[in-house]
Amino acid sequence: MKVLLVYPQYPDTFWSFSYVLRFIRKEAFFPPLGLLTIAAMLPNNWEKKLMDLNVSILSDGDLLWADYVFISAMIVQQNSAREIVDRCKMLGVKTVAGGPLFTSAYKELGFDDIDHLVLGEGEITLPLFLSDIRKNHVQHVYTSSERPEITQTPVPLWSLINTKDYATLGIQYSRGCPFDCDFCEVIVLNGRNPRTKTKEQIEAELDALNQLGYEGPVFFVDDNFIGNKQKLKTSILPSIIKWSEANKRPFTFFTQASINLADDEELMRLMTDAGFDTVFIGIESPNTESLSESNKLTNMNRDLLTSIKKLQRHGFQVQGGFIIGFDSDPVSIFESQINFIQSSGIVSAMIGLLYALPGSRLYQRLQEENRLLPSNSGDFLDGRTNFIPRMRYDVLVNGYRNVLNSIYSPRQHYERIKTFFKEYESHARSRVSIKRGDLIGIIKTVWFFGLKENERVYYWRLLIPTLLKTPGKFGLALNLLAIGFHFRKSIEKVQFSPTSLPS
Ligand code: SF4
After folding, report:
1. Tens digits of per-residue pLDDT, 225-249?
2. Are 95 and 116 a contacting pair, CB within 8 Å?
3. What is the share, in percent, of the chain residues with pLDDT greater than 70?
4. Which residues line ligand 1 (CB under 6 A)?
5. Mutation probe of ligand 1 site: the residue of 172, 175, 187 with most atoms within 8 A of C-beta
6. Is there a smaller number of Cβ atoms within 10 Å at the N or the C end of the chain?
């Protein structure tokens, strides 16, 4: 059997990090970990190829080579996924699809024409599909709400990709999150009881990445890395620390976690000892009523700014997710978000309009209230909503646009880096060093930001003192500059619809 695993393209907006990638000479930010894991679960004697459309171009010849084309995607990739399915249909190639996009709403999003939908978690449904292939009696839909343990999940089949195409590689340690935010699809897809891999599995995954000769950042892609704190503290982090020391620390790590990480000194210390230097946190809103409305309980009854600063002081660059468009948002929300983000020193702030993801509790509520709108994007960073907001639509979209333009203006962006550097002390140790490719990237940024772009005054104002006073932060400063530039360029592409509701 010949299987082609195809990963659809991300829209070239905030998600792609395309402008950052140009500086570091990489094709994509992150490899398709889910498809690589599925590939490892397929029979050994099947021929497998993987095409990630973020790094390569898919030809008809590639599709015609395959007996089956497997597709996995997130909701933001739905337009590209649609094109792949249509091409397969035209060429008469059978399609098999799974992953969040199809599991959450394959019917609503018009993917019912895929030959075989292998939904839910692959550990349960893929063996059913494979068994039916052997019996020559394959069905249209395989689904299960069962949440398997992931202690038998294999190491991803890294041999299918060229790791040099990617800015970072990844490991999944856990699935699920104990919290219950109403806009979140994670808890629908993966449940509220975090399921985790064993320390032996994590060591095997680290070994696999090390054997590729890779050195650099590794993203723990978990929904919420600290869903099971006890196991992290007693087993996983000590084991990563030991592995890293034995292998001369080839990796730095980053992940997603809830803000209550800031409440646990021991956990923060173990994470930075293990090499974690960055954490993405869903901050969502400085407005308590909006947090309450969305059931973001972990962010309530705390001083969010104090928690963020604490994380920064403990050695984490905090990246933040922010949402505008809750029913409880007052018209002052735009100003409050700007003020909050500036004071926080969160340099990489992903600010999106609230988007009702199919399957989420928010989606159900808005459906019941008859407020859902048709949408073919799935990208909550593209300047549109998929529901009728409480706030006047033109006020919402114009306010959102002002937040983006303000936060990513060169002045505000550079000021946030300075605010962040005042708190941040790097604790993570790694042998990851500047290589030839990085040097070329540095030269490019000097030419680009320091000489060519209008913002050069801010560039030199940041870099010269950093180089003189805290040279250890110089590489990070360059990275943050490139991210700011990426966000500014991405905003230019956002197609705001300021005067009317999307149709
Ligand atoms: S904390 Fe994050 S992952 Fe957990 S339910 Fe809330 S939004 Fe989802």
Report:
1. 999 999 999 999 999 999 999 999 9
2. yes
3. 91
4. 177, 179-181, 184, 186-187, 223-224, 258, 282
5. 187
6. C
